Amino acid sequence: MTGYIDMHCDTLAKGVLHHQKTITNVKGTMLDIERLERSHAAAQFFAMFFPQKNMPEWFGLAEMPEAETLTGLMYDVFQNTLKENRHRLGFAGSYEQMRENMLQNKISAYLTMENGFAVRGKMDNLKKFYDMGVRLITLTWNDPNCFGFPHSKNPSEMRRGLTEFGKEAVSFMNELGILIDVSHLSDGGFYDVAELSKKPFVASHSNCRALSPSTRNLTDEMIRKLAECGGVAGINLEPSFLNENLEDKKSRVCRMCDHAEHFIRVGGTECVGIGTDFDGIEGEFEIAECTGMELFFTEMHKRGISEDKVEKIAFTNVARVIKEVMG
Ligand SMILES: [Zn+2]
Question: Which of 37, 49, 55, 248 could be a cystine partner for 114, CB 3.0 to 4.6 Å?
Answer without folding.
Answer: 49
